[in-house]
Every structure is written in C-alpha cells, then in structure tokens.
Amino acid sequence: MRPEWLREPADVNALVAHLWSTTAHKVDGVLEVGGVAVTDLVATHGSPAYVLDEADFRRRARAFRDAFAGADVYYAGKAFLCTTIARWINEEGLCLDVCTGGELAVAERADFPMERVGLHGNNKSLGELAKAIEIGVGRIIVDSFDEIDRLAALTRELGRTARVMLRVTAGVEAHTHEFIATAHEDQKFGFSISSGDAFEAARRVTGTDGLELLGLHSHIGSQIFDTAGFEVATRRVLALHARISDEIGVALPQLDLGGGFGIAYTTQDDPSDPAQLAIELTKIVTEECRSREIPVPHLSIEPGRAIVGPAMCTVYEVGTVKEVALDGGHSRAYVSVDGGMSDNIRTALYGADYSATVASRVTGAEARLSRVVGKHCESGDIVVRDEFLPVDIQVGDLLAVPGTGAYCRSMASNYNHVLRPPVISVNDGEMSVVLRRETLDDLLATDVAMGDLES
Ligand SMILES: Cc1ncc(COP(=O)(O)O)c(C=O)c1O
Fold it and tell me: Whose CA is nearest to atom 5 of ligand 1?
C-alpha cells in the first residue's frame, strides 16, 4: 500500500533537511523559514500561502552562476516569475528566459536588461515578436519555419536585426533517471535534426538579411538527474553545428543546452549540484568539439526548477480529516487542506510526488500513511499522494509542503473559482508580499456581464 521508496519516519516531527530550503527548520514543532514562523506568517497573511526563502533562492542562483562562470545562466521564468524574482535574478548576474509576451512584460516592468533576455515559444505571435525586436531582446529562440518568415518580414519592416537561436530536437527525451534516444521526437517543439529540418532552418536564417544566427538550442526534458541524456543530445547538436560550419560557412558562436536539472521532491530523488553539472556538461561539450576539431562555442543553460523549486514551500490549513476504509482491512487518512490542484497541479498533471509535515506544533503521536488532498471538486485533486503524518493530525493544524517553487504558482488556476494564494518572501525574520492573495473582486473583474445583473 505504501510506495516502496517511502519509509516510516523515526520522528514524524523531523524535517528531511534536503527537501527544504536551507533556512527551514522547526522550533518546538513550528516550521520557521527565513527566520519567520509559519504560524506568524499565516496569522498575518492567511492560508494557504507560498513561502519564498529569499536567501535560498539567491544562493541557488549564485551557485549556478559561479559553477558556470564561463557560460551564461538563463533563469527559466516559466518555473516562477514576478518582478521581485526578475530583480533578484538580475542582481545575482543571471540572464532570463521568457516564453510569452506576458513573461516579457514582467521582465520589462522589473527593468530587466533586455540584452540578457531570451524569448522562447513555439507559437509566438507577430505582436510578441515585434515587441521583442523593438525593446532589444538579446535572443529569440526560433521554433518553426513560419516564425522565420514572420521574423524576416518584421525585421525588414522595422529596419532592425534580430539575433536568433534555433531550437532543435535531438531525438532525446529525458525525465528523471531515464532517457530515450531515438531518431525522431514526436512533439511540438523545435526543428528535427534527423529529418533535415534543423539544417534547412539554419540555411534559411543565415540567408536572411536582418537575422543573425547565434547558435543552436536544445532542451531535452525535466527533472533530469544525470548527464547521459545531455551527452547524446550534445553530440547530435554539435554534429549539426559542425555541418553548418562546413556547408554554410558560418561558425556559430553559441550553444544552449537548456534546463531540466532535477531537484529532490521526496527521498527518492538525488540531484547533482551545479558544480558537478558544470564539470560534466563542460567536459561533454569540449571533448565533442575537440574530436570534431571545431572551436568550443559559448555555452548557456536554462535552469528554472533547480533554482526556485526548493526555495518555496506551501503552507495550508487542515480543514477535515477522514479515515477511509480500503480493501483488505486497510484504511487511509484523507487530510483535506484549504488549497489543492489550483495551487499545485503537478501531482494531478504529472503524477508528481511531494512530501508534507505538520508545521504548527509538535506531536508525540505515531505516524500513519496519509494522503493530502485539496478542496476542489475532483477526486484527482491530490497534493501529496503518500506521506506519513501523525495520527493526531486535526482540523486547524498547519501543513507545509516543500519544493513547491517551480511550476506551482506559475501553473496555478482559479478552478472552482478558488483564489490564488499569495507569495510571501521571508528573509532574516522579515516577511514581504511578493504577490498578494487574489480577491473575489479580482475574480469577478473579468466578468463584464455582471453589470447587466446589477442594472
Ligand atoms: C526551453 C526550456 N528551457 C528551460 C526550461 C526549464 O526547465 P526546468 O525548470 O526543468 O529547469 C524549460 C522547461 O520546460 C524549457 O522548455
């Protein structure tokens, strides 16, 4: 009944340190992050709330920047972006990857230097592309032949040059410890190397006035724990890079290997640190370039999850506890919290595993296998599928889930018209609101027909 990897804890009060941001610890059973007790945070800002550990976020950003000192590190804003994050990323000397006009608007509002922004997206609109060119975005990662045509027309019309990279698919798909290397990838992103589309795209871009081809870009997946998949992809991408040099006569100055570096959501996960990743990726690139006798391009990477994921946790309040009988005389405790799939869709969407701990008190009770669920009208509304929680867990307890910084707030929805929680940053005993809690007025603001009801 319990997943094989899940062990019953010796002490149900204890935090598994490496799943939490670096400043997180418990004092008499109360979780403190950034010197702030989550009980105080909830008393001030309500529940549920995302708690963002500023020192931890900055430390992880800096660790990537320092480890990849000869390269550029683009923080992948899709993991979580707001003006505060853009500002911190800038202050820590990283670049920023955005993939829509909305994310670009956040970067602009935060005064992020546009030459250090990369714009992704498989279906960027004319408006998004025009805006990117006008405000001087440093690189546009081109994803289709239609986009090449759009950019050619736009740069002509605006009398500007766009610096671009080509998103290529190397036939490698990696998730966690597994990767698959095939000739083809059946997905929507990029130009296939094996079909010849990627070479043809390079030919068209290099033959277009107004477009400057900086290099090739490959992103192979997410939650990746070793570099074997990167190695296969890099060889294939550098083979194309060399062919472009030989046959088109253009030595591309850059290469981007994307993001996808894994983090520890539960005790199953054992991520590499940035220093180790830097050593391994740099070795893969330099050895492949040496064997092909080509200059080593300037490298860039795009970590999102590995920077912001562990820097946040979500604090919920328990609303109901239910014992549900299972087959074979077993039972499971269903602990319902005041959020759910609207603030963390990853469990429902990807079958992601999370962990949880009681965050507001110490307990002497035994642990039992429990499931943390949300308040939505979906039986798949699960936050933490399996966790040992104390048998005395009760209504009003605070429950904290670590590792919710990436793709939780950024994928949050208003399903069931639930209001999205705030993001509260904590540092040195101070809390500040980074994103405020939504209100019913926010929710109803787009319902313009409401006026008809009132009149
Ligand atoms: C092109 C690209 N770069 C970077 C990332 C960031 O991935 P992660 O947050 O897993 O590091 C993604 C995620 O989907 C991506 O599509």
Answer: 259
Interatomic CA distance for residues 272 and 152, integer angstroms: 41
Q: What is the pLDDT of residues 190-230, one digit of tens each?
A: 999 999 999 999 999 999 999 999 999 999 999 999 999 99
Residue 14: what are its φ and ψ, rounded to 5°?
A: -75, 145
**Mapping DSSP to helix (H, G, I), strand (E, B) and coil, where does residue 190 land?**
coil
Q: ∠ CA(101), CA(81), CA(229), 5° rounding? A: 95
Picking from 313, 308, 200, 182, the residue whose alpha carbon sits closest to that of residue 236 is 182
Is 303 close to ligand 1, i.e. is its CB under 6 Å away? yes
Distance from residue 311's CA to the centre of ligand 1 (Å):
17
Catalytic annotation, pick one of 82, 95, 377, 408: 377
pLDDT digits (tens, 9 = 90+) for 230-251: 999 999 999 999 999 999 999 9
Q: How far is CA 455 from the centre of its chain?
A: 45
The residues near 266 (Cβ < 8 Å, ≥ 6 apart) are 5, 6, 19, 353, 354, 355
Provide the token pair at 60: 């992880």
Strands 367-373 and 382-390: antiparallel
From 73, 302, 350, the mutation candidate for ligand 1 (largest count of ligand atoms within 8 A of CB) is: 302
Structure tokens, 304: 């999102």
The answer, as to whether pTM is greater than 0.90, is yes
Distance (angstroms) between ligand 1 centre and the Cα of 258 equals 6
Radius of gyration of the chain measured on its C-alpha atoms: 24
SS (H, E, C) 333-372: EEEEECCCCCCCCHHHHHCCCCCCEECECCCCCCEEEEEE
Does any ligand 1 atom lie closer than 6 A to the CB of residue 219?
yes
Per the listing, tokens 């250090």 go with 116
Residue 377: active-site member: yes
State in Å: Cα 362 to ligand 1 middle: 38
- Whole-angstrom distance, CA of residue 202 vs CA of residue 216: 9
Q: Report which residue type is found at 424.
A: I
Runs of H (alpha helix) within 95-208: 101-109, 126-134, 145-158, 197-206
The vertex-401 CA angle with 398 and 406, nearest 5°, equals: 140
Q: Which two tokens stand for residue 359?
A: 């965050």
